[in-house]
Amino acid sequence: MAAGIQKACYIIFLVIGILYLIGSLLLPMGTLATPKGGLFPLIVAIFLVAMSIALLAGFLKGTRGAVDAIEAFPTGKDRNRVLAVASALILYSVFLKPLGYLLSTVALMGVIVHLLGLRGWVKVALAAILTGVLSYYLFAFILEVPLPRGEVFP
User: Fold this and answer.
1) What are 35's strand-pairing partners?
2) Are 38 and 25 in contact (CB under 8 A)?
3) Other CB atoms closer than 10 Å to residue 147's CB: what's the count?
4) Is there a domain that residue 27 lies in?
5) Single residue among 69, 87, 105 that ends a domain in this structure
6) At what angle do helices 39-61 and 2-25 cross, to 10 degrees?
7) Which residue in 52, 78, 131, 139 has the fewest CB atoms around it within 10 Å?
């Protein structure tokens, strides 16, 4: 049954890649020196289609080493950690607009570094604040990406 699911995933990702490729071709490309909105999606779409074709071809040829290498979903504390990180990411997406990028990112990074094993609240807070501030500086000031400022603390 796992082989059928794996094949279906390869086909689904191939279809998604083709649709993404078509969508990216509708955007302006620009040049490598002055890229526009369609260049990066085009590169991602080509990569996704190529990887899907390669994986599907390997599967159909019978080289199913990847099927044997699939690990079961973690159990015990590891499962709880995976679910906690997934929950933190969902909450991050919910609170990103109302709280803003900086506050949401600091909170997310605090949760993640704690779940990954960093102990001591001073270390966790320092890592979270540094990560949040540095990423904010990178995106907002260097790359000039508009980030959510937040509705609670405008």
Assistant:
1) 30
2) yes
3) 15
4) yes
5) 69
6) 150
7) 78
Backbone angles phi, psi at 30, to 5 degrees: 75, -155
Give yes or no: residues 64 and 93 share one domain.
no
Entry pTM: 0.60
In this structure, are 88 and 117 located in the same domain? Answer: yes
**Statement to judge: residues 61 and 119 lie in one domain:** no
**pLDDT one digit per residue (tens) for the chain, 154 residues:** 477 788 888 999 999 999 999 999 998 888 878 888 888 899 999 999 999 999 888 888 876 555 555 667 788 888 899 999 999 999 999 999 999 999 999 999 999 999 988 889 999 999 999 999 999 999 989 888 889 988 876 6
109 near 132, Cβ under 8 Å?
yes
Per the structure, the complete domain to which residue 99 belongs is given by 76-142
